[in-house]
Amino acid sequence: MFSSTYNELIDINKMKEVIQQAHLRYLSRIDVFEKIDSTNTYLMQQAKKEAPVGSVCIAEVQTAGRGRRGRVWDSPSGNIYCSLLWSFQPQPPALPSLSIAIAVMIARVLKSYGVQNGLELKWPNDILFSGRKLAGILIEIVKDKLIIGFGINIIRTEEQDRISLEELLGQPVARHYLIGMVLDELIRALPFFQRGGLNSFIREWQALDVLQGKKMTVQAPQYQLIGVAQGINERGELQVKALTGELHVFSVGEISCRVL
Length: 260
Ligand code: BTN
Known about the structure:
This protein is of the alpha+beta class. The chain is built from seven helices and twelve strands.
């Protein structure tokens, strides 16, 4: 694949080399920071000041990187932290299904970058490799726009629950190309989602769905359930068959779940 040296800074011109010409014009503005609190937070502030759709923020380090469910996203130098401001007209889509579609888009890019057996998707949008977290996605709404933030672990980490791309590929990763490939895929595939919802994504999700058929506990606001995961429905909701045989359907944000 592409080569780069460790700790090479992100080169925007090289990043643009892998973005199709027709897609480049959607990227209205690209801000790159050595250090920022969070690329999502930055774009949220910019969106309130009417920043154009297609604005991108990339950072070398995040001092207050944010994960889902209010968690901290540890953001040292060397990984990928990027956010894109986007909009769907006439109205924003349902977030659960969008987050599924975006996880599939990023998985496609990781596959084409060389990540093969071991790549897994965990509802609602975790990207794992053999059970360890490789990438995360944080989608947020501001006014009528969306911020699609993604972080990809590139450099080796001591944390057992995370894995890095360099570790699993066994070679340095050219971050500018990888970011470019993700942005290119987002711009190419988001219109498919807008037109057909999960139609163009659900099969790939199913092929990588790590929860499928697993026995798990689900902690919902009012009750706890033990059941077997039955994949997602067309709205991107998780289906779990309780031991009593009933099918329960859960939306993002409603629950936390753990494989038994
Ligand atoms: C998760 O909890 O899995 C989501 C992690 C999302 C991290 C990315 S890094 C770029 C963007 N900026 C943030 O503060 N978070 C997202």
